[in-house]
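Retro notes, structure queue

What went well: the backlog is down to a handful. What didn't: a couple of records were mislabeled last round, so from now on we paste the full input next to the output in the thread. Example, using Lipopolysaccharide biosynthesis protein, LPS:glycosyltransferase from Terribacillus halophilus:
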Amino acid sequence: MKKKMHIVSSTDDNYAQHLGMTLGSLLENTSNPEDMVISIIDGGISQQKKQLLKETAAAYGTPLHFLDVDLDAYGGAIASRHISKAAYYRISIPEMMDPAIERTLYVDCDMLILDDVKKLFDADMNGNIIAAVGDYGEHHRLEKMGITKKDRYFNSGLLLIDMKAWRDNDITEKVLTFINENPDKLAWHDQDALNAILWNDWLMLHPKWNAQTHVILKEYKAKSLKEERVLRTVRETPSIVHFCGEEKPWQEGSIHPYTDGYYEYLAKTPFGQQNATSRNSLSV
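Corresponding output:
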């Protein structure tokens, strides 16, 4: 019997249609979507949009269900204009799911997935608690938080999680404690807190698995010719495009090169079919 691939994401009502695009692209580019199980952390999704998300997955024969999170645990979490408290809920994933699940892939709700993520599930994590892609925002957050001077900072938009290792090391409790005790240090919200605890316990994946806007728009400058070759590949053939930062494809006048890709996959979902009007009507 094949092992199921467990995919998790999190959203509130505002980003539910973008998650629909993410799920549609995920399932469209997976060889065996029926081998997946999708769990959505409910950050305040309306019944109407929940139904559209279920229909998106059902079209590929993929089960989808919703997870409830302990909202009281995130009382000290700080939200901002682009990041709601729903972004923090990934911290509780291993506590909300069946202990028998060995690995879970968390994906942000603003990702365009163009490759088969089964390749990630087959990766050797070399004893690390998570696998992720380095963050290209050049924030130097670890040093600013007083954690370490080493440049070991990941982007939390995509996380391959070893569920047992996470639980055995009490990562959820440690991250929540850091959030509650250091609210003044969290410039980048949950991502800062996760890095503060896991900075030396993560496997670096190829950046094509989380092609961030800083790389796609050439805002990040490569430090060597070798790195530039890698990033050129990321821009030309990304496996996952992450619409992080302020440049969003659903905003009027977007210059993101993968804006058309966003609308192409959105149109295939019940969200796109329901909102088959102008692009401007899809803005949030």
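Agreed that this is the format going forward. Reviewer comment attached to the example: Residues 16-28 form the longest helix (13 residues).
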